[in-house]
Write a structure and sequence with these properties.
The chain is α/β, with parallel strands linked by helices and about 260 residues long. The protein has helices spanning about 5-25, 30-50, 55-85, 95-105, 110-120, 125-130, 150-155, 165-170, 180, 185-195, 220-235, and strands spanning about 90-95, 145-150, 160, 205-210, 215-220, 240-250. The radius of gyration is 24 Å and the shape is elongated.
Length: about 260
């Protein structure tokens, strides 16, 4: 048996095994093993088609390989999300009005933010924050309250929200970065040190986030998440408790928030 036949037979056999296991419900359509078998088999058959100079067969298997590769990557990301969820302990369903009220309690009375939203032409904190997140239709989403079991380990894995000013000044033009990456930014380190937030970190914390295929994206609690990530980087333990209100955001492309001259 020549090498060309071995390559073709191997690719066909791998894909047939995957097909039969799928038909017998041993491997589900969403099983990464099924997607991986299709990917490996189709790549071998692409090589087989090229050796035979069969362009239609090569194109067919290229399309199959591309679809399988996409599914494999999706499975990897889902597996990572499932692994991360061990750090989240479900507490209860929560209505958006309650989420918004908790956010208001955390922020609305701070003089810095009062001056900020008034300078931008808003008459109240509620008016300002409703405008900030209007693009995600938060009121019509389903929200859950979770406890973050180990904030020092897990919060640095969160991603910063896609705020325009953060994209410009912190994310180096990217739409988001993890807080462990943000903590490496010299300006963030300087700001956290100047505010003394680590030294005076609140013991009870509330955050708001969106659950995406890439992980949790924070829309409330950005500066505290930066402080936690920086403290973790410096191996400085913080004795804190943290809850987070989470809603699933199925679209990977979360709309941009805020304006270029706004901290959040």
């Amino acid at each position: 048996m020549d090498n060309t036949t071995i390559i073709g037979a191997s690719g066909t056999l791998i894909m047939l095994i995957g097909f039969l296991l799928n038909q017998k419900n041993i491997w589900k359509n969403s099983d990464i093993r099924y997607d991986a078998a299709n990917l490996v088999g189709s790549v071998l058959l692409i090589n087989y088609a090229i050796l035979l100079h069969s362009l239609p067969f090569a194109v067919l298997n290229f399309v199959w390989a591309a679809a399988s590769f996409k599914d494999v990557m999706k499975s990897f990301k889902k597996s990572a999300m499932d692994q991360n969820e061990k750090y989240l302990k479900f507490i209860k369903p929560i209505a958006w009005d309650e989420v918004f009220n908790l956010w208001e309690e955390n922020e609305a009375k701070q003089e810095y933010w009062i001056a900020h939203y008034k300078k931008r032409g808003f008459n109240s904190w509620k008016e300002w924050r409703a405008d900030t997140i209007k693009a995600i239709d938060s009121r019509n989403k389903t929200w859950e309250l979770h406890e973050i079991v180990n904030p020092m380990e897990y919060v640095p894995r969160f991603f910063g929200g896609p705020f325009r000013s953060w994209i410009k000044n912190v994310y180096q033009g990217k739409k988001t970065l993890s807080f462990s990456e943000i903590a490496n930014n010299p300006q963030i380190q300087k700001n956290i040190a100047a505010s003394k937030i680590i030294e005076n970190f609140p013991s009870d914390n509330f955050f708001i986030g969106l659950k995406t295929i890439d992980g949790i994206v924070v829309i409330e609690g950005m500066h505290r998440c930066c402080a936690i990530a920086l403290a973790a980087k410096k191996r400085k333990a913080l004795n804190i408790r943290a809850n987070i209100a989470i809603s699933v955001f199925p679209d990977k492309n979360i709309p941009l928030f805020g304006s270029l001259n706004s901290p959040t």
